[in-house]
Amino acid sequence: MKNIILLAPPVAGKGTQSKLLVEKYGLAHISTGDLLRDSLKEETDISQKIKDSMNSGRLVDDEIMIELIKERLSKPDCMDGCILDGYPRTLKQAISLDQLFASLNRKIDYVFYLDVDKEILRKRVLGRLTCPNCKSIYNDQIENMNSSNPGICDKCNHTLIKRQDDTEEVFSVRYNTYINEVEPIIVYYKEHKVFYDIKSFGSAEDVFSKIEEILSFN
Length: 218
Ligand code: AMP
Prior knowledge:
single chain, alpha/beta, two-stranded antiparallel sheet, 8 helices, 7 strands, globular, binds adenosine monophosphate
């Protein structure tokens, strides 16, 4: 069983690496961004608050996130290991996640830090397109990353959508938030000796082979 965290700035490729990890290792994929977007389909007391945070690029409150992840991790598909994509994003979330895992007799095995240059991220954010059905990710501004039929998912034929928060302005807030929050998380996981720095230039396959190599050695 492997429990993996992907720690990375926005649009660094966490979703793509998660998909590759799911295909190879059959782990449950937990994207807190997707969980939040799904939760917005129902009108609840806190959904407007969540929507406001997401649309402006700010983080959703730790208390909401901690409850959300607790519920998701209790589902049966997580019992054989999971990939956390977008969680934790604050030190408080990281500490509470360890407590949660400890109570389930489990632990975090790997934290892969996908290190990507800010300028590359900015270009990626403006072209990202997502399939709302199978969650496949495309990019109409990067060669070899567009779908064969523009605007349509290659895998399930659904119409691709642009995320509301994929704008230059929101990206800037999200990136700065990330930089402010990530340093203590890195220090925390280095201390716990589960931290792996993955220099993420090159193709998604190149990045994935670095991850695979670490997983095969441990
Ligand atoms: P993502 O799809 O991972 O890029 O997340 C989209 C947005 O959801 C972020 O910009 C945050 O507003 C919110 N979000 C996702 N994960 C978290 C988290 N672990 N803590 C707080 N906010 C989050």
